[in-house]
């Protein structure tokens, strides 16, 4: 779907009629024109943001939240890997709800394998796609034991060989646990990068590459978290909150003025 601004033509039916002294007072003003609101999550790329504006964009997000963190709950690299694997097409809230019960009884590859597929399914059944995720989780546990001594590897190639672990999951683990400047582009980051002009790109890989080039070095490590949180809570898909956005003046989204006014 594409954005369809809701421009409305307001015809003033009485405007062409002669306005006489008798009916002059009754001529109503046409209603104010409604702002054009984007109606879908898809946003055509905005023109690229200038380097100085990009720096200021992240400086402000950092000022608001100096130590941004993932909203997934974990205490070890293995817990993080499993939480991220379970979070594909599911909310962090639903994953945390399940892992709060799962991790206290099983938070190592062997302990999860000991639960068995049925046992694991029962404990994650509130998460979307839980059957496939249970199978992938156990297959990942087996590979971790066979190839990595039960530890989570800190390189992309090994991570991406784990069942259910794609580039995005590997990027989250590399960035969040191993503190590498990797950029996991999810739906929020893809939208914010295109909408604002920060790093326009036609697909997630193009946006990932553009962000790695265009985010100023001092913000690269935490940019992933700032952008996700900004997209999740402010620059939302259906109703971006431009009226209270701290980077409004830097953003190149063409609807922002209308959204600020309506906000
Ligand atoms: S001004 Fe609006 S569109 Fe631009 S980043 Fe802020 S919320 Fe998003």
N- to C-terminal separation? 24 Å
CATH topology of the largest domain: Endonuclease III, domain 1
SSE arrangement, N to C: HHHHHHHHHHH
Which whole number gives the mean pLDDT?
86
Strand coverage percent: under 5%
Weakly predicted, low-confidence segments: 1-27, 30-42
| Percent helix | 40-55%
Give the structure's gist in a few sentences.
This protein is an all-alpha fold. Helix content is 48%, strand content 0%.
Topology:
Layout: H1 51-64, H2 77-86, H3 92-102, H4 109-124, H5 130-148, H6 156-160, H7 167-176, H8 187-196, H9 204-214, H10 220-233, H11 256-262
Based on the model shown, name its key terms.
single chain; 263 residues; Endonuclease Iii, domain 2; Endonuclease III, domain 1; 48% helix; binds iron/sulfur cluster
Structure description:
With 263 residues, this protein is mainly α. It has two domains: 51-67 and 183-262, Endonuclease Iii, domain 2; 77-176, Hypothetical protein, domain 2 (Endonuclease III, domain 1, Orthogonal Bundle). Helix content is 48%, strand content 0%. The protein has helices at residues 51-64, 77-86, 92-102, 109-124, 130-148, 156-160, 167-176, 187-196, 204-214, 220-233, 256-262. The protein binds iron/sulfur cluster. The site of iron/sulfur cluster has 14 residues, from helix 8 and helix 11.
């Amino acid at each position: 779907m594409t954005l369809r601004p809701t421009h409305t033509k307001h015809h003033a039916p009485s405007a062409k009629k002669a306005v006489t002294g008798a009916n002059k007072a009754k001529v109503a003003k046409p209603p104010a024109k409604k702002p054009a609101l984007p109606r879908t999550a898809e946003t055509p790329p905005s023109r690229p943001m200038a380097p100085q504006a990009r720096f200021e964009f992240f400086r402000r997000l950092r000022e608001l939240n100096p130590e941004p963190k993932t909203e997934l709950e974990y205490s070890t690299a293995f817990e993080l890997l499993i939480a991220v694997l379970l979070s594909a097409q599911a909310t962090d809230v639903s994953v945390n709800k399940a892992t709060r019960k799962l991790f206290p009884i099983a938070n190592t590859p062997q302990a999860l394998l000991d639960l068995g597929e049925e046992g694991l399914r029962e404990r994650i059944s509130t998460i979307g796609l839980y059957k496939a995720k249970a199978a992938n989780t156990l297959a990942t546990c087996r590979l971790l034991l066979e190839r990595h001594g039960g530890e989570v590897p800190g390189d992309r190639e090994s991570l991406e060989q784990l069942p259910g672990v794609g580039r995005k999951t590997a990027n989250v683990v590399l960035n969040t646990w191993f503190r590498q400047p990797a950029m996991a582009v999810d739906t929020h980051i893809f939208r914010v990068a295109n909408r604002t002009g920060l790093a326009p790109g036609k697909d997630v890989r193009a946006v990932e590459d553009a962000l790695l080039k265009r985010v100023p070095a001092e913000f690269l490590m935490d940019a992933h978290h700032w952008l996700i949180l900004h997209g999740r809570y402010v620059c939302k898909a259906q109703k971006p909150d431009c009226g209270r956005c701290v980077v409004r003046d830097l953003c190149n989204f063409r609807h922002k003025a209308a959204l600020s006014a309506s906000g």
